[in-house]
Amino acid sequence: MAEQEKKLDRRFTLAHREAWIGVGLVLFNFIWWFGFAYGLGSAPVEEYSYILGMPAWFFYSCVVGSILMMVLVAVIVKSFFKEVPFEAEEEEERV
Questions:
Q1: Bridge-based pairing state of the strands 54-55 and 50-51
Q2: Distance (Å, rounded) from C-alpha 95 to C-alpha 86?
Q3: Mind listing the pLDDT tens digit for each residue in 43-68?
């Protein structure tokens, strides 16, 4: 019984770590978006610069930020996330 609890704890520990990585990604995305949207977008409209017909603040915060986050999430999930069985029985079979 105690050994089974250790296995469950290991799964929860892994899930906890992955949840914190997800929170970090969300915070990074928000800081990126906020920084470019309000950093470059706070100037008067006459002073805006444009990229591909879009204001630079919108291009960097929304277009580049979305592409960056998609790549970053894919790399982090491939590198740091591990597949964890939902059933305790599957875990026992592997050992």
A1: antiparallel
A2: 15
A3: 888 989 999 999 999 999 999 999 99
Burial class (CB in 10 A: 0-12, 13-18, 19+), 13: exposed
- Classified as helix, coil or strand, 71 is helix
Tell me the backbone φ, ψ of residue 55, rounded to 5 degrees. Answer: -60, 145
Report pLDDT digits (tens) over 17-26. 999 999 999 9
Establish how many alpha carbons lie within 13 A of residue 24's alpha carbon, considering only the half-sphere containing its beta carbon: 10
Confidence band (pLDDT; 50, 70, 90) for 75?
very high
CA distance 7 to 91: 8
Q: Where are the domains of the chain?
A: 54-82
Kindly provide the b/e burial profile for residues 59-94, where b requires at least 16 CB atoms within 10 angstroms of the residue's own CB.
bbbeeebeeebeeeeeeeeeeeeeeeeeeeeebeee
List Cα–Cα distances, 73 to 3, 76, 89, in angstroms.
34, 5, 30
